[in-house]
Amino acid sequence: MKEIERQGGMISIAYDHPGCATSTAWAKKPREPELGEKTILIERIKRLLKEQDAVLVAHYYVHPDLQDLADATGGCVSDSLDMANFGHQHPAQTLVVAGVRFMGETAKILNPEKRVLMPDLDANCSLDLGCPVEEFTAFCDAHPDRTVVVYANTSAAVKARADWVVTSSIALPIVKHLKEQGQKILWAPDRHLGHYIQQQSGADMLLWQGSCVVHDEFKAKELADLKAQHPDAKVLVHPESPPAVVQLADVVGSTTQLIKATQNLAANKFIVATDNGILHRMKTLSPDKVFLEAPTAGEGATCTSCNHCPWMAMNGLLNLAEALEKGKNEIQVDPVIGRRAKVSIERMLDFARQIGLPTRGIGNA
Ligand code: SF4
Questions:
Q1: Which residue among 12, 139, 152, 242 is buried most deeply as judged by most CB within 10 Å?
Q2: In which pathway does it act (predicted)?
Q3: One digit per residue, pLDDT tens: the chain, 365 residues?
Q4: Whose CA is nearest to atom 6 of ligand 1?
Q5: What is the DSSP string of 143-179?
C-alpha cells in the first residue's frame, strides 16, 4: 500500500485492486497513539462508555488494543453476526461497533431502537463495495427463477433485495436446505465462498464475481512450501480464499470456527490463512501454541498484497474516543430498507435455531 497523504493526524492510503469495483476505494489509517497517550485514552473511553450507557463490540480483525478494551469493559470480540446479536441482547442503549460499515448496519438493522456509533464510517469492505445495489438488483431481476442468497458482507440495501442473508458458517446448511427444496440459487458477492459452497453442496448456483481484497491474496504455491517446512502445522483457511488455497487446508471455516480449531485440534502449530488481526485472539486463548501467517507474497503479488484489511485498520483508540465524545459517526439505515433486510437476516437466525446452531458464533469474516 502506498501512503499518499498526512493530514490532521490521519494517514491516507491509496487503495487499488485491479479488476474489482474497489479500484477507486481508499482507506485511511488512524495515527497510533504514544504509550502514555494510550493509557489516558483507554481510561477516557472507559469513562465515556459508562457515562453514555454504551458497550463496545469489536471484530476479531481490529487492532488488539480495541479487542482488549472490548473485553475489559464487558463488551464482546467476535464475528459480525455475533457482534450484532450481542448488541441486541445487551441492555446498553448505544452500541459502538469497531469493525467495518456493514457490521454497523447489521447492528442497526437488528437493533433499530439503539444508537450505533463507529470509529470511522468510511471503513468499508471490498465485497460490499463490489456489489452496488443497482447492478445487483438488475442481476437478480434478470434471473427471477433463482432464490437470492447474500453474504453478510453487503449493504443494507442488498440485504433488503435478498431472500436470505447467510454467514460463512451457516451458508452450507442453508444452501443444502434450499437445494433439497429444488431451488436454484443466485449467490453474492464472494465468488470464492460461493464456489466452495457450490462444490460442497452440489447446488445450482449462479455467482456474483466479488472478492475480499485480503483473502484473495493468499498464494497456494507459497502456502504449500510453508506447509512442507512445517509438516507438524495444521493449515486453517477461511473460505473467502482462492480454491487452490482452500484445497491445502486441514480446516476450512469462519473466523469463529478457525479459532475453535486452534483450541480443539491436537496440534501446537498452525498456519493461518485469514486476516492477521485474528492472531491476537488465537494467541490469547492458546499462548503456548505457534501461529504462522499464510503467505500473501509470491507469484501474482502486488504492492497491495497484504493479510490485513485496510478498512479494519481504520479503527483506532483516537477515533473511537472522538466518536463517543462527540456522538460522531452514527450509523443510519433507511427504516424501510432496514425492515426488509431484517426479514432476510431473521430467516437465517430462525433456520439456525431450527437446526440447533447457536445464534452466537455463526458469523462470517
Ligand atoms: S477482510 Fe475482506 S471481507 Fe473482511 S472487511 Fe476486509 S475486505 Fe471485507
A1: 152
A2: Cofactor biosynthesis; NAD(+) biosynthesis; quinolinate from iminoaspartate: step 1/1
A3: 333 333 443 444 444 444 444 444 566 778 889 889 999 999 999 999 999 999 999 999 999 999 999 999 999 999 877 887 788 889 999 999 999 999 999 999 999 999 999 999 999 999 999 999 999 999 999 999 999 999 999 999 999 999 999 998 889 999 999 999 999 999 999 999 999 999 999 999 999 999 999 999 999 999 999 999 999 999 999 999 999 999 999 999 999 999 999 999 999 999 999 999 999 999 999 999 999 999 997 666 666 667 899 999 999 999 999 999 999 999 999 999 999 999 999 999 899 889 887 655 444 44
A4: 309
A5: -TTEEEEEESSS-HHHHHH-SEEE-TTTHHHHHHHHH
Ligand 1, atom 4: closest residue by C-alpha: 365
At 57, list the grid cell.
463490540
DSSP state letter for 122:
T
Q: Sketch out the chain's domains with CATH numbers.
A: 2-125+310-332 (3.40.50.10800), 127-213+336-354 (3.40.50.10800), 215-293 (3.40.50.10800)
353, 172 Cβ separation under 8 angstroms: no
Helix axes 35-51, 64-72, angle to 10 degrees: 40
Q: What is the DSSP letter of 190?
A: B
| 252 close to ligand 1 (CB < 6 Angstrom) | no
User: How far does the centroid of ligand 1 lie from the alpha carbon of residue 62, in Å?
Assistant: 11
Which letter does DSSP use for residue 310 in this model?
A: T
Record the cell numbers describing residue 211, joined without a space. Answer: 472478492
